[in-house]
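so my prof wants the structure for this chain in the tokens format not the other one, which i didnt know existed until like an hour ago. anyway here's the sequence
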Amino acid sequence: MDDRDPDTQLIERVGRGEPAATRAFVAAKLPRVLSLATRMLRDVAEAEDVAQETFVRVWRNAGAWQPGRARFDTWLHTVVLNLCRDRLRRKRVTTSDAVPDVPDPAPDAEAGLIEAERGSAVARAIAALPERQREAILLVHYQDLSGAEAAAALELSVEALESLLARGRRTLRARLGGLQEGEA
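here's what i got, hopefully its the right format
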């Protein structure tokens, strides 16, 4: 782990209640927080709620942050994952996994529909992975975290993360193997 956390000074300023630091922090982190939450929950409104809850926790805990224990970004991703897990558990009890069809309004939509179906197939395959495999795949491949950072966010060893990634990739290849150019 890098001893120098690039977020330390900014978090200290957020902890002191500096409005400019808070704006800078949200501007820097919101896109990644929303991206992870949207991929986990597959619902933009839910993802926005998770992002809001995440930033409330940041503001509450910024003053107590102790640099050096873990990178702040790792803690931030862990908060997002935990909030998404909570929502997914609640959702499993009350709703189905049906994915609504969304029409493409583009004038020449055939190519777009094929690409959207391909993307939907990948999203469905990722959503069907076991929870820990899905989280590992999303953190490494969609959030661009390093193996060490993703392992820390998931509270795993790097070896355990690599095992989750390998199993997840095998499952995705098997489920998406028939998806060829031009097929959906």
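also thought this was worth mentioning. Helices lie at 8-15, 19-41, 44-61, 72-94, 110-128, 131-142, 147-153, 158-176.
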